[in-house]
Specification:
This protein has about 425 residues and is of the alpha/beta class. It is built from 19 helices and 13 strands. Strand 11 and strand 12 form a beta hairpin. It is globular.
């Protein structure tokens, strides 16, 4: 059952460009109900999606490369599942990994497909040595499993060595980051609470109330989560709100607010005072935000299901406005396995949307108020170039230095920029601007 469920999820991700996180959540209950290994299920899905490029290259070495290009995606997905187990999952005996995949192929298709899967996997088993392409871009794309166009751009931006460090970092399993709910407890108390349960939480050093752990399953199953003592959020995202620096009794507008990680942190930092207007056009995501606010017992958030570009009335009424813009997501490739396969396709459209979002949000900032623009990418076209262009169009705004709000090693040219392999957190960008009188 487990491999069949994994197959269904992976196929949907590549065929319909659905997001694996959503699909995994939907199917997790079935896995648990069937008393199957939930951790293995997640690993198999996320790993196969993440390493698709590498798996494709290796498989092509063990079959006719030209014929493989035209092979049905459904059959490729079976090969991904089988080969990923052989290469990356030492806990599964190789004969079991092959036999289970072959039996699934026969069940879903026919014996001929099962024979083909068996032949390819056993060919790799007999000869697991890999000769990578000589071209540096093609080699990195195949070896580390990224689209060649992203590898090419990263080499151009940061050089081959740093780009390769970045690719390696994103292929590791990230730690779980927790944000302590300061309205309910303290870092010290939460650390002590989990220490009694033999679970170690350590400050990340980035973000003022951030902890990390390698015991994700145990932590998330603990009653402390359901009771609202902490949230799951990467330190890079929390630092965006540290930079925003919300104050008690203020009025704050949050564009693209759902599913609510940053929004709920704003509310916590305001100690449930003032108001946070959370605007997002997705009803499903707004429901997730409401659920998070209820769990954390935050009552100063007003939820607005609306396209941000239609939100109104337009008036310079807010002390602070956050634009957490849709982006290419280069900074979260480690956590969102599927993003790397379609994040390069729509950047021109994203740039236009980001520009429009900044100009729209600026109209809501009161004199001497603040505007923070953030993304979870490291693409300069979506980050510092957007800020440069915005300031040229809007002379009544000026860039504000972060000062001591965030760690100095995350600041460059007066803006927040995190580097995953350097800071051991997701890649993110944020810039803070103030509206002049």
């Amino acid at each position: 059952m487990l491999r069949n469920e994994a197959y269904q999820v992976i196929n949907k991700v590549f065929k319909d460009q659905e997001f694996s996180d959503t699909l995994l959540q939907q199917r997790a209950k079935r896995i648990v109900a069937a008393k199957q290994n939930l951790g293995l299920f997640y690993n198999l899905v996320k790993g196969s999606i993440k390493m698709k490029g590498q798996l494709d290259y290796i498989i092509s070495l063990h079959t006719d490369p030209k014929k493989y290009e035209t092979t049905d995606l459904k059959i490729k997905v079976l090969l991904y599942i089988g080969l990923y187990q052989l290469i990356y999952l030492d806990s599964i005996p190789q004969h079991a990994a092959i036999n289970e995949t072959v039996e699934l192929a026969k069940k879903l298709f026919n014996p001929a497909v099962g024979d083909f899967i068996n032949a390819v996997l056993r060919s790799w088993q007999r000869n697991p040595q890999i000769t990578w392409p000589e071209d540096p871009i093609q080699r990195a794309a195949a070896e580390h499993s990224y689209p060649p166009e992203i590898v090419s751009r990263w080499f151009e931006l940061w050089g081959e060595e740093d780009a390769e460090y970045l690719m390696l970092y994103f292929n590791e399993n990230p730690l779980l980051h927790l944000r302590v709910n300061g309205t309910a407890t303290t870092m010290e108390k939460l650390i002590q609470y989990f220490a009694k349960r033999e679970i170690s939480l350590k400050p990340t050093g980035y973000g003022k109330c951030m902890l990390s752990t390698d015991k994700a399953d145990q932590v998330l199953e603990d009653v402390a989560f359901s009771e609202g003592y902490f949230s799951v959020q990467d330190s890079s995202a929390a630092m965006v709100i540290d930079l925003l620096d919300p104050q008690k009794e203020e009025s704050i507008l949050d564009f693209f607010a759902a599913p609510g990680g940053k929004c709920t942190y704003i509310s916590e930092k305001m100690d449930n005072t003032g108001e946070v207007i959370a605007v997002d056009k997705s009803p499903a995501k707004i429901k997730l935000l409401k659920r998070a606010a209820d769990r954390l017992q935050l009552f100063n958030i007003k939820l607005v299901t609306s396209d941000v570009f239609k939100y109104g009335p337009v008036a310079p009424a807010y002390n602070r406005v956050l634009v957490d813009a849709p982006c290419s997501g280069w900074g979260v490739f480690g956590r969102k396995a599927d993003l790397r396969w379609h994040s390069f396709q729509n950047i021109p459209d994203l740039l236009k949307l980001q520009e429009k979002a900044l100009d729209t949000a600026a109209k809501f900032v009161r004199p001497e108020g603040y505007l923070v623009y953030s993304t979870c990418t490291m693409n300069p076209d979506e980050n510092q170039e957007q800020i440069k262009s915005f300031l040229e169009r809007n002379k009544n705004f000026q860039l504000v230095a972060p000062g001591k709000l965030i760690p100095a090693d995350c600041i460059k040219d007066g803006m927040m920029r995190t580097i995953p392999f350097k800071h051991h957190i997701d890649g993110a960008f944020a810039a803070k601007m103030q509206k002049l009188k």
